[in-house]
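Data deposition worksheet. Section B asks for the primary sequence of the deposited chain exactly as it was used as input, without tags or linkers unless they were present during the calculation. Section C holds the resulting structure in token form. Section D is free text for depositor observations; keep each observation to a single sentence. Incomplete worksheets are returned to the depositor.
Section A, Depositor: J.P.
Section B:
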Amino acid sequence: MSTDAPRPERPARFTDRRVVVTGAAGGLGQVVAALFRAEGARVVATDVAEADGVVPCDLADDAARTAFIEHALGELGGLDVLCNVAGIQQFAVLSEITADSLRRHFEVNALAPLLLTQGFAEALIESRGNVVSVASISAVMGQPYNTQYCASKAALLLGMRSLAVELGGRGVRVNTVSPGGIETPMIQAAAAGLPADADWNLVAKSQSVIPGFMPPEDVAEALLYLASDVARSVTAANLVVDRGVVW
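Section C:
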């Protein structure tokens, strides 16, 4: 017989809200989509990988992204929340970074969320909706072997803040969440790719006050807060969820 205390019922903050979540085949995006649904939202989820209940789409591909926007608006009849979670990360020493790899990081981590916001903008203006994008603490600190990810997430962070200024007068809130290390397949794969001769003195400079990677649910809750009406006065913000990373 289980001794676990029953989980409290989730609030219904998003009843009948129309939500798009990217990167939803696994990891953080999958959790975010599930929590939106648990709170009553109608969700269209997408990912480059195939999964049940997920529309396959490479959001870095212009034609595929445009088709997805049309599909989502047709399915939902409008949009209240755009949640940009999809991202990639590959550690590499400077000498091993290729132009193709660097472009891919910018295409997925920065250009796709910005262009999705552009594509959904009129629907979001009509609903007075909001955008929440996953940036990273890597966007505001130099990290060894992480140049591609740091640079692309920094572009996303400032791009979203600029859109918050531009769209705020039209009733659309735009915010970001910057996580530290999350226990997901992406971070596991990225960590496995650290160079064999990595300088661990450099890597170890970034430490969290609370040790260990976070469960994705901890970050997902921050995204749902920003997307909810409770955060109606929050825009152009970057909510850091990193267990107290210090340098």
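Section D:
The radius of gyration is 18 Å.
Helices lie at 27-38, 62-76, 99-127, 147-168, 185-192, 200-203, 216-227.
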